[in-house]
Amino acid sequence: MSSPDGPAGDSAPLPPQALFLKRLVLVLAVVMIAGFLALIATLIVKLSVEPRILPESLTLPDGARATAFTQGPDWFAVVTDDDRILIYDRESGVLVQTVRIER
Fold first, then answer.
1. How far, in whole angstroms, is CA 75 from its chain's centroid?
2. How is the chain split into domains, by residue range?
3. How far is residue 12's CA from residue 40's CA, in Å, rounded to a whole number?
4. Are 54 and 66 in contact (CB under 8 A)?
5. Would you say residue 13 has pLDDT above 80?
6. pTM score
7. Measured between alpha carbons, how far apart are the two ends of the chain, in Å?
8. CA–CA separation, 47 and 29 (whole Å)
């Protein structure tokens, strides 16, 4: 006895609109997977490069390593790993002031 929908092995041809919709969904799935892979590849490339937080014009004192950087209208400030804030002039790149961080 067969069911109203027909047996599982008996497949009737799909109407043209359903066939078009099936192909459209397949193309959408392929495009989404390709986009996701492109996004993952972009993240890997961007995150694998070590960020440069200092402008090229600034040089830190010997032994100092930058942990943070900020800037104002006419100055740059660099926080170092030895608990100092170094303030540089934006125009000349000269060290203007050093602030020791007390804990």
1. 28
2. 14-49, 66-100
3. 41
4. yes
5. yes
6. 0.50
7. 86
8. 27
